Amino acid sequence: MPSISHFEIYKPAEPCNLVGDPLRETMDRIVGECLSKDGKELNLKGYCVGHNGMTVITMDDRIGKVKRLNLGGNRIGDDGVQLLAEAELFSKVNWVELGGNDIGPKGIRALVNSKVLTKVKTLNLYRNCLKNEGAVILAKENKLQKIEDLDLAQNEIEDEGLLALAHSKAFPNLVAAYLDNNFASAEAREEARLGPNFKKLQSLNL
């Protein structure tokens, strides 16, 4: 018989459906357990904190030193990303994992126009819902100029979005991009490799 852990996608706490005191108490405990001793890394991968949990996290003074933030698999959605983008407590973050969070164009717009996350060098957005619209927003509006490593795999991005990113001038320091398992055609992928934003890269997965 398979162990229970085989079926676990989210951690047992799953605070995304909690509100009020139970939410605050749960998030207080989770942050305490998941924040590194030096306060520079917060790994909440798979806890399903949701938008509700983000409202609590973004007001927790304990995270003011965090540089590495893992929010993978937390169902925070567009509203949760907006809270992240506006929270001054995250101003030191330079590595952020946002895979599997139901993020769409609205959330991407908030993220790439953030005045807080300007130190981010690694941005992981795999397995979200950017599609063409989100990819174009990212290509045209990105203000996170220090990004070096960008993961956009599994985002339903088609030809238009891929080519917009390939020709973007908004990533002056990009050295690696991952766009595998999207919906672009073979022709568009070949054309994208020659785009000015992509042909300079050290690593490119299409």
Structure commentary:
The protein has 206 residues and is an alpha/beta fold. The chain has a single domain, classed as Leucine-rich repeat, LRR (right-handed beta-alpha superhelix) (Alpha-Beta Horseshoe), CATH 3.80.10. The chain is built from 7 helices and 7 strands. It has helices at 20-34, 50-57, 77-86, 105-112, 131-141, 159-166, 186-193, and strands at 41-43, 68-70, 95-97, 122-124, 149-151, 176-178, 203-205. Helix 1 crosses helix 2 and helix 3 (77-86) runs parallel beside helix 4. Residues 1-10 have low confidence and may be disordered.
What is the H-and-E element order? HEHEHEHEHEHEHE
How are strands sequenced across the largest beta sheet? 1-2-3-4-5-6-7
Major sheet attributes:
7 strands, parallel
**Strand coverage percent:** 5-15%
Radius of gyration: 17 Å
- The CATH class turns out to be Alpha Beta
Q: SS-based structural class? A: alpha/beta
What's the number of domains? 1
- SS summary, helix count: 7
The total strand number stands at: 7
> The CATH topology, please?
Leucine-rich repeat, LRR (right-handed beta-alpha superhelix)
- The unreliable regions are 1-10
> Can you give the mean pLDDT?
93
Give the N-terminus to C-terminus distance in angstroms. 39 Å
Quickly give the CATH architecture. Answer: Alpha-Beta Horseshoe
